[in-house]
Amino acid sequence: GAGVSQSPSNKVTEKGKDVELRCDPISGHTALYWYRQSLGQGLEFLIYFQGNSAPDKSGLPSDRFSAERTGGSVSTLTIQRTQQEDSAVYLCASSLWAGDIQYFGAGTRLSVL
Amino acid sequence: AQSVTQLDSHVSVSEGTPVLLRCNYSSSYSPSLFWYVQHPNKGLQLLLKYTSAATLVKGINGFEAEFKKSETSFHLTKPSAHMSDAAEYFCVVSPLIQGAQKLVFGQGTRLTINP
Questions:
Q1: What confidence tens digit (pLDDT) does each residue in B40-89 have?
Q2: DSSP B38-59
Q3: Closest by alpha carbon to B77, among B20, B22, B17, B27?
């Protein structure tokens, strides 16, 4: 079956622009997660959704970052006024329920020039 | 708070020889522990998971890991390396008390296989 799908796979943007990253979880998975992978910080948790609500958004690095999930399915991570330090690979994962194994997408590589 | 330390940033072995990737964890609770693998330009793939059922955990592709509470370790091993094992490996901890909502990753170990 289909795995976690992320789009775009690569995104190049100019400093100060807004970007939207999309995640399509595995069908039927109720929990969805966003992580960031960067050279300096490694892999970091950003936010977690159970259904459409986000019980844990403690990892969002600043108020420029936001995320939403609609219909208990697709999620969008939005970064406003991008900065060069936002350059990273953004990974999405989903699990059947909170506490189950997380399955990862291939990620979106964001480059801020 | 939970954390993991991967003791080697890079491990290089010859094809057909054993692999050992070391991981120590810190957790206030009984943790879930995982090993994930990441091949270039691919997503993270789960190798194996420990959740207190058995201390020796067998995973995919011949990998296994042993949970040692006294040493707070969860080292990953494989008896015989294959060229396809070349990748980045991550040791991961997640608190059982809240479920696996927030995985905490180690810094990763890059495994190189020499022909």
A1: 878 899 999 987 778 899 999 999 999 998 999 999 999 999 999 999 99
A2: E-TTS-EEEEEEE-SS-SEEE-
A3: B20
B49–A42: do the CB atoms touch at under 8 Å?
no
pLDDT at A7 over 90: yes
**Interface mutation target, options B9, B103, B110, chain A, most CBs of A under 10 Å:** B103
Q: Which residues of A touch B44 (CB under 8 A)?
A: 91, 93, 104
Sign of CA dihedral B27, B89, A48, B54: negative
Of the candidates A45, A101, A106, which has its C-beta nearest B102's C-beta?
A: A45
CATH fold of A5-104: Immunoglobulin-like (2.60.40)
Domains defined for chain B, CATH in brackets: 3-114 (2.60.40.10)
Q: Which pLDDT score, from 0 to 100, does residue B98 have? A: 53
Token pair 């690095």 in the structure block, residue: A61
